[in-house]
Amino acid sequence: MIQHLAAIWKFRHFLNALVRLDLRLRYRRSILGVGWSLLNPIAMTVVFTVVFAELLGGGNYRTYVPHLIIGMAVWGFLREATIQGCRALIGNESYIRQSPLPYGIYTLRTVLGQAIHSGIALAVAVVVTAAVQGKPDALLAVWLVLPAVALMFMFAWAMATVCAFVNVYFQDAQHLLEIGAQILFFLTPIIYTRDVLDKRPGMSWVADLNPVNLFLDLIRAPLVTGGPPPADLYLAAAALTAAAIGLAVGTTAWLQKKVIFHL
Do 152 and 78 touch, CB atoms closer than 8 A? Predict the structure, then answer.
């Protein structure tokens, strides 16, 4: 793994060029450009707040809006990084056939591109949270979420790598993952609070076993309360990320010499 990371660092300029190319293609001929990354989370938060604030948020906008917009930013990153990661190897087939670069470059290209957009969305969430709550705690607590963001990024990169290899052999994996993501969205406390699950017998396990909810708690808690999350959440997130990285490393080592024959 160390050699693989060293090879990625060696070709970091090529990686940077790929990410910049993706950004240019995504916003080519767009009037707002990156502004869409600002508009989208705000628009979705407004829609969900109007529809669900009274039903699922108890009518308390000061707590529901931060809960929702932070959740949407975290969910959007994990969902898009994983689903788009499915095509990381297939979409870069021409590069793979021409040069024996480490495969991690192509999945990292996808995750980095999505991290830029989701980083903007999370910054919007921080500002909105501070404005809605009427206190600067969210702004001052940004540094508390950096370890959680780093763990989430590594987890997303690992899962994108695994999904990229799986999708080469079974190209329905991306479509199945999209369906699974739709289901998981409603099983994750994003548009509702964790209490909704806890109040229903036998439903708490849905949140406890949900990896998305783990990162949600790590990032929401500091931004909403201004204090650090419990240490056991960091340990659980670190263990989950380590397991995902181990799976990604094992998958890459097993299939990196074979995958070229299936592209």
Answer: yes
CA distance 176 to 25: 27
Average pLDDT for runs of 10 along the chain of length 263: 82 91 78 67 80 70 86 93 94 87 92 91 87 72 89 96 94 92 90 82 79 92 84 93 95 89 82
Give the pLDDT of residue 81: 94
Which residues have CB under 8 Å from 49's CB, separation 6+? 57, 61, 64, 65, 68
Q: How many CB atoms lie within 10 A of CB 150?
A: 11
Instruction: Report the pLDDT value the prediction gives residue 114, as an integer from 0 to 100.
Output: 92
Residue-level pLDDT at 37: 65
What is this structure's pTM?
Answer: 0.90
Hey, what amino acid is at 186?
F
Pair 138, 61: CB distance under 8 Å: no
Query: How many angstroms separate the CA atoms of 109 and 6, rounded?
Result: 16
Distance in angstroms (rounded) separating the CA atoms of residues 22 and 4: 23
Q: What is the pLDDT of residue 152?
A: 96
Residue count of the chain, please give it: 263
- What's the rounded Cα separation, in Å, for the pair 114 and 88? 13
Q: What's the CA gap between 146 and 56, in Å, rounded?
A: 29
Asked if 94 and 157 count as a contact pair (C-beta separation under 8 A), the reply is no
